[in-house]
Amino acid sequence: MINVEKILKLKPFLDEKVEQYNTLNFIETDPIQIPHQFSKKEDIEISGFLTAIIAWGNRKSIIKNAEKIMHFLDHAPHDFILNHTFQDLKKIEGSIHRTFNSHDLVFFIKSLQNIYKNHGGLEKVFSAEKEEEDTFLVIERFRERFFEIEHLQRTQKHISSPAKNSSAKRINMFLRWMVRNDPNKVDFGLWNSISPSQLVCPLDVHSGNVARSLNLLSRTQNDWKSVSHLMKNLKMLDADDPVKYDFALFGLGVFEKFSS
User: Would you say residue 156 has pLDDT above 80?
Assistant: First the structure.
């Protein structure tokens, strides 16, 4: 049973934490700094996508290895995706980030080329229908399109599936970056294909633990069922921009080691 009164009492506290962490200073310590290096829409979305895909583990390592990917792409992601040669791809070798290796990256480059040349680009393949309340079907449709070209089976694990009850944390983080119209310019607000009200929090160990401490989440797993539960509660606090509270939950967990 949802205790609406208790949830609404959290709003002033969480709004204050959003203001504290949803600032340009956040960029300095977060992988979102990688797409902030670019100004062209396609460069921002491609660099953001590839950065988000490897965003698990130590954040310094994520940033370092995302920089490695940008180096492989000649620091011009869109141009590289469209115009790379076989010889360009041969230069990509070795480990990229944890279990994401050079074979995975080469496939991602080829699939992104297919998406930009044949399907109108990333924003178009991530389009939501107006009646969809969240990103569940958005991500499932994207996965189908992304893996329509020949690929290694192992590569599929790098784009999680809500249909398999994954929280799809990394894709949802990327979507927050692209869609949320952020007055403080941390998130980019580049896309209109999804409404901010349809976004869901990129649930991870930090935001999940804080959400449980605040009784915003009762389930112990960080899976899609928990994402859905959490979002129903966060939409009570702000129906139009519920994922802004990701800054509060993440900041409380990572920077303040919060527990109620």
Answer: yes
Query: How far apart are the C-alpha atoms of 188 and 172, rounded to whole Å?
Result: 14
pLDDT of residue 223 exceeding 70: yes
Residue 240 has pLDDT above 60, yes or no: yes
pLDDT confidence band for 3 (50 / 70 / 90): confident
Reference 175, options 162, 192, 155, 157; nearest CA is 192
The span from the first CA to the last CA of the chain, in angstroms, equals 20
Are 167 and 139 spatial neighbours (Cβ–Cβ below 8 Å)? no
Tokens 């499932």, located at residue: 140
User: Domain segments of the chain: what residues?
Assistant: 4-254
Provide the Cα torsion 138, 141, 142, 146; round to 10°: 170
Encoding tokens for residue 79? Answer: 């141009």
Give the three-class secondary structure for 122: helix
Taking the C-alpha atoms of residue 172 and residue 190, their distance in angstroms, rounded to an integer, is 15
Sorted by sequence, the CB contacts under 8 Å of residue 99 that are 6+ apart come out as 157
Which residues on adjacent β-strands are paired with residue 100? Answer: 97
**DSSP β-ladder status, 100-101 and 95-97:** antiparallel
pLDDT for 94 equals 87
What is the reported pTM? 0.96
Is the separation of the CB atoms in 20 and 251 below 8 Å?
yes
Q: Extract the runs of DSSP E, i.e. beta strands, from 99-255.
A: 100-101
Residues 6+ apart with CB under 8 A from 68: 96
Give 258's contacts (C-beta < 8 A, 6+ positions apart): 210, 213, 252
